[in-house]
Amino acid sequence: MHDNRHRARMLGEAMVDQRWDDVLAMISPHVVAHVPAVGDLVGVDALAGFLLETTAKTDDGERFELLDVLVGDHTSALYFRITATRAGRVPLDNLTLHLARFDGDLVVEIWFHNFDGGAVAEFWA
After folding, report:
1. Is this model's pTM higher than 0.85 or not?
2. Domain architecture of the chain: domains with CATH
């Protein structure tokens, strides 16, 4: 379990620091990301495109604060507060859980769970 904790923390810290190349290096080329209100994104290119698209919609990108990491044998949950601003919208302040399933060193599947899905959907609409 120690390895999963280390991998998950490295992933979360790379997201906090916006080191997207490092994040993508920890993701399987064939990852499946389950994103509320978007659907399933298949492949690292689809996930990277989604990240670029959401960043482009904000005033100055999203800010990630890693609140906690919970670890199991094959999955890790990264608990974040994500904030962002966007012209004409209520600022985003989103508590979210990213549940990542690892196969070895790589994330092969990830589920995004927002605590206030309505507010998140309104921000991105």
Report:
1. yes
2. 2-124 (3.10.450.50)
